[in-house]
Amino acid sequence: MTAPHRRPLIAGNWKMNGTLKEAADLVNALVKDLGSPSHEVIVAPPFTALTVVGELLKKSPIKLSAQDMHWENSGAFTGEVSGAMLKDAGCHAVILGHSERRRMFGDTDGVVQKKLKAALAQKLVPIVCIGETLEERESQRTFKVLETQVKGALTGFAPSDLSTVVLAYEPVWAIGTGKTATPDQAQEAHLFVRKQVAGLYGDALAQGMRILYGGSVTPENVDTLMAQPDVDGALVGGASLKPIGFLRIVNFKSPAAH
Ligand code: PGA
After folding, report:
1. What is the average pLDDT score of the chain?
2. Tell me, what DSSP letter sits at residue 181?
3. Residues with C-beta less than 6 Å from any ligand 1 atom
4. What pLDDT, on a 0 to 100 scale, did the predictor assign at position 257?
5. pTM
6. CB-based contacts of 80, cutoff 8 Å, min separation 6
């Protein structure tokens, strides 16, 4: 059970999927059947669909997120999109440091930290992703990796700067693989991450910070994951592309559901 002061957040990361029509169909289906959820719900379409989806979300509690951003506001950065542009396009949040960005596009902890600073300056809610690879887990380096990633991204702020930050623990071996961390593995990692945040910025910030789990979250496993005390929500990839399944995840049931 998530602590009562941390509102559960379910975020759908659509990755590089969806024509404008597909994006509109998906979001319309979500809006139609969502009702008024007690949890916070976010969708992150690709850049091209942000404004279309944003328009369709205008009267809905679902909030809009981007999947990445550049740390400068504007300039000669071909192919990049800035936080200022995301804000202008109606974004509420932005995903930063996703493992696909880290692995394929060179996002280091230092880059993630710069993006985080720029996102906060734009008053975007940052969803900062961290997580170990299979090799790191198998060689008992999970905690070391998480510590390095948390410190690398979050260093150099005042605690008050970070009050809106959301972390997402996404073990790389669980992303898109159908292999989910067990609830115990997720809880252990989330508690460790929360302690790292407490070590850096104190208990008050750490206790208020939401830590999402990501990696093959499905309608079948969301309830047991969300039953863990330090799992405050989910970052959902593949399963967020199917409205019925995503809505079931949004409406997860845990023994102490609110
Ligand atoms: P998945 O992706 O749910 O398809 O494993 C999660 C993510 O990458 O955020």
Report:
1. 95
2. P
3. 13, 170, 175-176, 214-217, 235-239
4. 44
5. 0.96
6. 69, 70, 72
